[in-house]
Write a structure and sequence with these properties.
Length: 202
């Protein structure tokens, strides 16, 4: 069994859902593993690792900007053997397929710089799924991801809540309204384009 580096690519790394996904994966990982927060930066000894797992939320159909410096550093590293790259990406949309463009971006990067491609886990409804009775769908997907990584497979695993779009929209509206209330924001305030006193609609 080799050594795994798990990269948290969320801008909110210490309090992100990406962190929660990583914690559950580590419970199902049988080998040695280290963690790295892309938002914090710092040097990485890539030669120590046989596998890299990028864990990040979908940002505008792509990879979060905080992950790009890490990828730039990885691209400049010319060591061998190349670690196998795996991806766990989650989005707030119901459909896990919404993550596919971001997955293709990372896969193109790997092809360009000679990194072997491994497992992919695409999680739909990822912002809320861990706090619902459907969390076990995400947990099952992560167990499949870990098993596939450890056996050297290259597969795509997709996870979502088993809800209709209409029901999902209603449930997500309740979720975000509650989230706003915790931060002293009304639903009406959350629907505006005003952020910290600036109106981004004009």
């Amino acid at each position: 069994m080799g050594r795994l580096l798990i990269v948290n690519g969320s801008p909110r790394a210490p309090r992100s859902n990406s962190r929660r996904y990583i914690e559950y994966l580590l419970q199902n990982w049988k080998g040695a593993a280290d963690q790295y927060a892309a938002v914090s930066g710092g040097p990485v000894s890539f030669e120590l690792y046989t596998d890299l797992l990028l864990v990040f939320p979908l940002y505008v159909d792509g990879v979060p900007a905080v992950l790009l410096p890490f990828l730039k550093t990885l691209a400049a590293w010319d060591g061998t053997p190349r670690p196998r790259v795996h991806v766990l990406v989650n989005c707030g949309f119901l459909e896990p397929e919404q993550n596919q463009v971001a997955v293709k971006m990372v896969r193109f990067f790997c092809k360009r710089y000679g990194f072997p491609w491994g497992m992919t886990l695409r999680i739909g409804s990822g912002e809320a799924i861990l706090d619902t009775p459907f969390a076990w769908f995400a947990h099952r997907g992560i167990r499949r991801l870990a098993a596939g990584m450890q056996s050297g497979r290259s597969e795509v695993v997709s996870v979502r809540m088993p809800l209709s779009k209409a029901l999902f929209v209603r449930a997500s509206t309740r979720y975000w309204s509650g989230y706003g209330a915790k931060n002293h924001m009304t639903a009406e305030q959350m629907r505006t384009m005003e952020i910290e006193g600036r109106d981004f609609q004009t």
